[in-house]
Every structure is written in C-alpha cells, then in structure tokens.
Amino acid sequence: MPSIQFSLPDTVVVTGTASGLGLDVARLLLAQGCRVVGVDTATSELEGQAGYEPVVGSIAESETWIRVTSAIDSAGPGSLGLVTCAAILDVATVPDLSRSTIDKVIAVNVIGTALAMAALIPRMEAAGGGSIVAVASINASLAEQQLAIYNASKAAVRQLARTAALDHARKGVRINVLSPGPMMAGLFKRHAESATDTEKFVATRANRQPQGRILKAEEVARAALFLLSDGASAVLGADIIADGGLTTGFDFRTGAEGASI
Q1: 52 catalytic, yes or no?
Q2: Whole-model pTM above 0.85?
C-alpha cells in the first residue's frame, strides 16, 4: 500500500508509561526504533524491552527530573522529544474536594508538566531543536461535571504549552498540545469504573460520539507520534483535538430523537 514516512526523535521522554496513553505512546515509539525514557511512579510492562529506560518517581519532584536527564545522557547523543501523558483525575464537585486532592492534581498535572519542560527545553535548545507534545484534554476548554479540578489543571497545561511554544520557537523547540477525548484506557476507564452503572455510563458516552464508539488509546497515541515527527514541522503552538469528532458539534443526533424539523 502507498505510505508516507516521517522522522521521529532518537530519544523520547514519555511520562505515565505504566498505563493508558503513555503506555501506548511508548509502545509505538519503541516499535519505530526510538529510545524511550519512561517516567512513572509505577512499574511499566515495557521494562526489560530493548530501548526502554525506566525512571520510577513522581514527575512533580525535581529529583525525578535529575534522574531523567541522567538517563538521557546514558542513552547517547541524538535528537530529543517529550510527551507528557501522566495525569491524575478525581471525581468530585468543588465543595467535596479536599485541599490535599487539589494539591495532588495540580502537582502532577501542571507542575509535573512544567518541570518536564524545564528539564528538557535547555537540552533541546543546546542541540538545535526538539519536539514536545503536552497532553491536555478536550476538558481544557469544555466543562464536564464533577471534574472541576481536573478540567482546570488541563486548561493550565494547554496555556503553559502554548506560551512555551512562543518562548522557545526561535531556538528550534517545537511545542504543541494534544487534547484527547474519551479513551477506553487510563483516566476515562477509571472514571467509568467509578460510575454506579459502568456499562450504562460507557454506552451513553459512546452514543455521543459521531462514530458511535470510544476511541482506543493507540489511536490517540498515533496523533502524538505525528506531532513529535518532522511531518508536523509546520505545526507549532497548536491544540490538536483527538476526540473522534465529539466536540465538532454541540450535539450529535443519532436519529433516535425523531425528525429535526
């Protein structure tokens, strides 16, 4: 079949590789021959695979990023990329949120992303360039009930990345935002499992999708790889929506509503 090829960075740091989108991004990168430095508080099933270097630790801690940069050095010279997939989600209304929960979500989702950029951007600039994909969410711009602090944190990630894209563009660092919709993995899966009737929750959400299904994490991971690649050289500071068309319209009519006129 006809195909097209784009180049990827030699080494890519991926956060959240123990599950969800981060795991699928890392898996695809390894299949393409990239070296992957995977950062997570938990062990990834990728450990032991050729090209995968684990760093176990919280992305919200500066010490973790010291160890990440050491792992990059041990991987050898070459171009560098970053995909910030790690995130946490707590289902609650604002009055039900404890201070510790708020601090935890902001620490991982926002501070962790900022520390990742702070650690890697200077290395990218010294090397003449690099590519960063900051994973936000469609919830960065659309509200979803019971996810106030998660939504706020992803809005912060979006603006953090877009501003950094302008700050570092002249030094060859290309930063973009990837905003996924629901994926049958990671945070959405845990959100569904917290519902009273998980099967009904998933079926209802799938019916809202124009394609009638929840995306697989691997589908969104492919979008991340494109943004990392030189095929996306014209894309900078953009927010790429990977939600299967969920936010294209204000509501998707399935036909069950009856005639529209």
Answers
A1: no
A2: yes
Out of 30, 40, 116, 150, the active site residue is 150
pLDDT digit string, tens, across residues 57-89: 999 999 999 999 999 998 888 999 999 999 998
DSSP string, 21-78: HHHHHHHHHHHTT-EEEEEESS--TTTTSTTEEEEES-TTSHHHHHHHHHHHHHH-SS
Which CA distances in Å does 10 have to 100, 121, 231?
A: 38, 16, 15
Determine the residue type at 206: A
* CATH superfamily of domain region 11-242: NAD(P)-binding Rossmann-like Domain (3.40.50.720)
The closest alpha carbon to 24, from 251, 219, 249, belongs to 219
Q: Give dist(CA 159, CA 140) in Å, integer.
A: 9
